[in-house]
Amino acid sequence: MLASSERFRVGGPSPEEQLLVLGITNNDLAGACLVEDGEIVAAASEERFTRIKDHKTWPTRSIDFVLHEGRTSLDAMDAIAYGWHAGFDADRHLLLYVDRVAEEVRRNPDSFTHLRKRISDEMANDKEKRAEFDDFVDNNGLRSKATYVDHHEAHGLGAFLCSPFDEALVVSCDGRGDFQSLTVAYCTEQKTEVLQRETSIDSLGYFYGRITKLLGFRANRHEGKITGLAARGNPARALPLMRQMIDIDDANRIRARCGDLFQPSYDGYTTELRAEIAKHDPADVAAAAQAHIESILSTLVARHIATVPTGNVCLAGGVFANVKLNQRIFETADVRNVYVLPPMGDGGLPLQAAVVASHRRTSLRPKAPSMALGPDATISTARLDELLGEYPTLSVRRVDHGMEKIVVDALADSQVVGTFRGRMEFGPRALGNRSVLYRTDDVAINDWLNGRLNRTEFMPFAPITAEELAADCYVGWSSDHVSARFMTITYECHEQFSKTCPAVVHVDNTARPQIVREQDDPFLHRVLLSWYERTGQAALVNTSFNKHEEPIVGSHRDALDALRSGAIDVLLVDDTFVIRDEARDAADLPDRQ
After folding, report:
1. Quick check: 583 and 571 in contact, CB under 8 A?
2. N or C: which terminus of the chain carries fewer CB neighbours within 10 A?
C-alpha cells in the first residue's frame, strides 16, 4: 500500500498549528509511532530491528526510526502517548469489579482466589512496564507531555479514527488491558458513548488463548492456527464444554465461570480441564471454540447495532485478528460495513494511542490510512552491490521498466518470489512490500512452502487480487470494504475462483484476501492483472516474508539471507531482481551485471 493518509478536521486548532505526538508501547510487542497534525508519519515494531519475535522491551530503535523519518526530535514532541496502564479509574472500574467479584463469589466461593490473582497479576505486570515509560519521560524532561490513554480507548477510538466512517459501533476485545477485556461504544467525530464494559475476569481473549495452549500451541501467539484448524472439526461435540467456561447471558453480559474449567489467565490448567479436552478430537475443540466466540460477539453486536443508523462497525484488539470472526460479525443482521484496524492488537498501540492523543487536541483524524509506515527499502546501486559481494551465490538483473513482466515470468516458471520494496508495513500482515508471492493453482503449496518457511499452518495462504477482479472472486465483496485491503476478513469464494485458485481457498470455501487498488500500489496492481491475463488466475499467493517464529524481514540483509537459504527462489528489491545461481536457468535470467 503506497497511498498517503488523508486528514480531516472537526473544529480544533487551525491547520497552521503543528502538533507532534509520539506513541510508544513496551508491553507484549514494543514499538513506536509518530503522528503529525493527525497524519501518521511513521510506525514500526521493535522486533523488526532486534529480530526477536514479539519483543517485549523498550522500543529504542523504533523511537529513533520514527523521529528520523519525521525529521524531528524528542524535544519537539507535544505529547508522548502511552496506551497501557492509564490507571484504575473508579468511575470506570470500581463498581464494575465490586459487582462482578461479588456475583462470581456467590456462584462459586472458591473462585475468589482466581479473581484476586487476575487483579494482582495485572497490577504487577503493568506497574513494571509503566515504570519504564515513566523513567523515559522523566529522564528526557518530558513529564508534562506524558499522555496516558486507556487501553481499550486506544484500541476502540483508535480504530474509529482510522476508519472511513463518520459514525460506528466500536468493539474492542482482547485478553486484558487497564482491567478490561471488552468495551462497546458508539462513536462519532464529536463524541464517544461507552455502551458496555467487561472486566478482564470475563475475557474472551483468555478463553481463546487457553484453548490454543491446551491444543499444544503458544497462547497469545498461535491463535491463528486454531482458527484454521476449526474449519476441519465439528463444533457441536465440544460446544457444551466451551459454554461451561464462558458465555453470554440474557442481559448481553459476558460471564466467565472461574474454577476447574476456566481461569482468567493463560496459565493454570487443572487435571479435570485437560481430561475434558482430551475426550475430543483437537479439530472439534478448535471448531467449538471458534463457533462459541463467533456466537458471543456477533450476538453482542446484534444487540447494540440498532444504536448506529449507518450500520458501521469498527473492531480492534487482539481477538479481532480472527478473520473468520470478523466475517461472522459482518454477516450479522443490520451490519452494513466493518473496519478492522490493520494493527488491531497490542502491537498497534503506539499508533492507536498517538492517533487518539492527537485527536483530543486537534480533532484531526487519518481516514483509512496506508500501513506502509516503516523503513524504506530504497537502496543505492553501490550499497546493494556492496552487500551482494557477501553473497557470491546470488546474481542480479536491473531494468529501467517492465519489471512486472519479469516477475510474472518468474511466477509462471513456478519460482517463489520474495518482495523487499517500498516502506515496510506496520502490523501483522505483509501487504506486498515484504511478501512472498506464488501461483495459486498448486494445491500442495501449503505443505512444501510452509516446509521451506519452517511453518505449521492449518489455514491456507491468503490471496492477493486486483480490485477489478475481486467481485468475481469473493461473494458479497464491495469496493467500500476497506478491511479487504488489509487481509483482516474472510469471504465465501465464488465457484470459478475456488477451481482456478485452490491454493488460497480453505476447506470451508473461504479466503482472506488483500484487494489491491491501482492508486494504492500501481506496480503490484499491474503484476496482478498481467498474471490474470497470462494464466486466468485472479490472485496470487501472498504470505509474509519470514520464517516461523521470526519477524518479517526488516533489512536488505534479512531478505538476502532468506534467498540464500532457499526460503525463496528470487528476490525483488525495488528495480533489482536477485536470484540464486542454481535457480537461474529455471527463471531464464542472465548472470550478474
Report:
1. no
2. C
User: How many angstroms separate the Cα of 120 from the Cα of each of 110, 125, 203, 382?
Assistant: 17, 9, 16, 56
Given a contact cutoff of 8 angstroms between Cβ atoms, the answer to whether 284 and 238 are in contact is yes
CB neighbourhood size of 341 (10 A): 29
Cβ neighbours, 10 Å, residue 448 = 11
How far is Cα 128 from Cα 414, in angstroms, rounded to an integer? 50
pLDDT for position 425: 98
Q: 10 Å Cβ neighbour count for 393?
A: 10
| pLDDT one-digit tens code per residue, 277-298 | 999 999 999 999 999 999 999 9
- 290-322: pLDDT as tens digits: 999 999 999 999 999 999 999 999 999 999 999
Cell of 334: 443490520
Tell me the torsion sign for CA atoms 310, 358, 31, 379.
positive
d(CA 164, CA 159): 10
514 DSSP assignment: E
In the three-class reduction of DSSP (H, G, I as helix; E, B as strand; rest coil), residue 492 is classed as strand
Nine-digit cell at 445?
503449496
Give the 3-state secondary structure of residue 440: coil
Q: Averaged over 110-128, what is the pLDDT?
A: 83
Angle at 195 between CA 194 and CA 200, to 5 degrees: 80
Question: DSSP alpha helices (H): ranges in 378-537?
Answer: 381-388, 403-412, 445-452, 467-470, 495-500, 522-535
Neighbouring C-beta atoms of residue 254, cutoff 10 Å: 23
By CB neighbour count within 10 A (0-12 exposed, 13-18 middle, 19+ buried), where does 548 fall? exposed
